[in-house]
Specification:
The structure holds two protein chains of two kinds. Chain A is α+β, with helices and mostly antiparallel strands. Chain A is built from nine helices and 15 strands. The longest helix of chain A has 22 residues. The radius of gyration of chain A is 19 Å and the shape is globular. Chain B is built from four helices and no strands. The longest helix of chain B has 15 residues. The radius of gyration of chain B is 11 Å and the shape is globular. Classes of the chains: A alpha+beta, B mainly alpha. The interface between A and B is medium-sized, with 21 and 17 residues.
């Protein structure tokens, strides 16, 4: 069996408010977008601050808050799509910076909004095969660096941040059985096209998409409506499959903590799945969509606010870029 | 759902546009308040009320509310 033993997170110091965004986009109604996205402000990594730096700070906070000795960590996994270098894995660099023993394993994996769920699964796997006892799962993202300065939609939605989670053979939340899903045919719907091996050099192309948005080839592109449709189709089935796999019914679930994409999407998922509002967590007003860190941040917020208590059963899920999704039950 | 109910649900997605604007032959993409966010609201409406998926391209290809309604019904 594997458990979550500790969760902490770190948000970079720089904050961008909706008021600041409207100064850049005066044609834009802050109130309207705020009411749809549920986001009032988001954090942004500084020019010199990388996902690796954010992950390090989240891990140091975890060690401090839970009095964890980094020497007890025997595996380190980092989920990021903004790695510090093409190679090596940022996780290897963090092993050294965090004073984790050289006997520990470490690797990065490239996933976005579903990343935390996949990380929990890998950590549980490592523990169940006795390859590790204390797995440090880090999620860190700096999507803001990928955004075109004129991309007001994504600049309003995404926020930078990192989370650290210790998965161990004992702890406060038992990790149940997982269900995953992938639809690579939708890869183009959320993509940074250039800079890696396929198109190493910037292509500096612009085009208009079906939503009337300008697509810049060298920056992050998201087809919001396609992602929205994918989510509305995939998440209800994911929920049913996770419940079935864990031999549970909806009545057994005390709290739904889903990837905090934006308020409008979450509310629509809630309606499509026909879930009670009081059991459905939505809070991204001061963080924005931090990609792979929204779920651990939300879980920690629920713990801090006493929404999440011992004895509760939680359905949690991530979905997005890939397109990729995963869900699991956590028993607190 | 009949056309009149669809029109009234469609109108509910707007905050500033006068309700008299919303008729069967209303050319919705010409409304000042029209944006990609309202398009997302239509996707949500079609999913929650009809259990169907409509793409941004389909929403852009229809002109009037009645045309959109007929398209959704035929999906």
């Amino acid at each position: 069996m594997a458990f979550i033993k500790a969760i902490s997170y770190y948000l970079p110091e720089q904050v961008e408010t909706n008021e600041e965004l409207t100064r850049v986009f005066p044609e834009w109604s802050v109130e309207r977008v705020t009411s749809k996205t549920g986001i009032d402000s988001r954090h942004k990594a500084s020019e010199s601050e990388t996902a690796g730096d954010l992950a390090e700070k989240a891990a140091l906070r975890l060690f401090d808050e839970y009095k964890i000795n980094p020497r007890s960590i025997d595996f380190l996994i980092l989920c990021t799509q903004s790695s510090d270098y093409f190679l090596p894995s940022t996780a290897c660099i963090l092993q050294d910076r965090l004073n984790i023993p050289t006997s520990a394993g470490a690797f990065d994996y490239n996933l976005g909004c579903s990343g935390f769920i996949y990380g929990l699964a890998m950590a549980k796997g490592l523990i169940s095969i006795c390859a590790a006892r204390n797995v440090l799962l880090l999620t860190a993202e700096t999507y803001q660096k990928y955004l075109h300065p004129d991309d007001k939609s994504n600049r309003s939605i995404f926020g930078d941040g990192a989370a650290a989670c210790l998965v161990s053979d004992e702890g406060f939340a038992e990790i149940g059985d997982f269900v995953f899903g992938t639809d690579g045919s939708g890869a183009r719907h959320l993509m940074v096209e250039t800079g890696a091996a396929r198109h190493r050099q910037p292509t500096n192309e612009t085009s208009e998409d079906d939503n009337g948005h300008i697509r810049h080839s060298d920056y992050l592109y998201m087809d919001g409506s396609a992602i929205f449709n994918f989510t509305l189709d995939a998440v209800p089935a994911l929920l049913e499959n996770v419940l079935q796999k864990n031999s549970l019914t909806r009545g057994d679930i005390d709290l739904y903590v889903l990837h905090q994409a934006n308020k409008f999407m979450l509310n629509t998922i809630r309606k499509v799945c026909n879930l009670p509002k009081e059991k459905f967590y939505v809070n991204l007003s001061e963080t924005g969509n931090t990609v792979s860190s929204t779920v651990p941040i939300a879980l920690r917020q629920c713990l801090d606010d006493n929404i999440l208590k011992s004895g509760m059963t939680v359905f949690t899920a991530g979905f997005g870029v890939g397109l990729s999704l995963g869900g699991v039950i956590l028993k607190f | 759902m009949d056309l009149n109910t669809f029109i009234s649900q469609f109108a509910n997605m707007f905050d500033e546009t006068d309700s008299s604007e919303f008729t069967a032959d209303c050319s919705y993409q010409d409304l000042d308040e029209w944006s990609s966010i309202t398009a997302m609201s239509i996707i949500a409406l079609v999913k929650t009320e009809f259990g169907k998926s409509i793409s941004a391209r389909e929403i852009r290809s229809c002109h009037t509310i009645e045309e959109l309604y007929n398209h959704v019904i035929s999906m």
